[in-house]
Amino acid sequence: MVGAAAETGLDGIGITDHCNVSAGADHDRRKKVMGFNLDQTFERRREGIEAVRERFDVDVHDAVEMDYEPDDEAAVADFLETADFDYAIGSVHYLDGVNVHFGSYFAEKSRAERRELVDRYFEKLVALVESELFEIAAHPDLFERTPELRGLATDDHYHAVAEAFRSSRTVPELNAGRALDTYGEFHPAPRFIEVLLDHDVRFTIGTDSHDPGEIEPRIEAMEELCERHGIEPELF
After folding, report:
1. Measuring CA to CA, how many Å separate 155 from each of 100, 190, 198?
2. pLDDT of residue 216
3. Does 148 score more than 90 pLDDT?
4. Contact at 8 Å (CB) between 120 and 100?
5. Is 76 among the domain residues?
């Protein structure tokens, strides 16, 4: 990944493995299945990052993407204080205890129930921003990738989140994770970006790359997006 960043001409790259510190048997099982166990391995990974820094002329940032649930704020704060990452990303991935990508679960619910879940998603996102635990909020409308939840967000949702960002140190991420394939849009969605800009909210950018070959085309797409909207992204 760092080699690909160097070949793309980047000055730096953040390594942000997922992490979850929620308690309980279901969470423990999910963490093992998904590999969200950086709370157990961050020191070993840090040694690897130090070794890679010596090989490439690229700033390699030791960072993390944390699953956020309001009930976990104390545990998240304790872990982030202990680990002392270069920066931390917070993300909302779950509704009803189910990952928002699992469309089959949400397909069984009525439209009204799905609207209520999207309400809950944005309530969690506002709580994430107001917690001041994170430098960055990842893919602020992640649920839009799921057809069963897509299109249920409203301007009221967007304005509530924009107000929270405007008063917080946390910056939303322009995320290219599915912009070049199945979903076909960046996060946030176009209307959400417009509202955030209307509220003078700053952005950072994230390619959400899970493979070295994804970095260059996603960087090019992010540059085009920022130019189109006149965005000067924040860097961490």
Report:
1. 20, 12, 12
2. 97
3. yes
4. no
5. yes
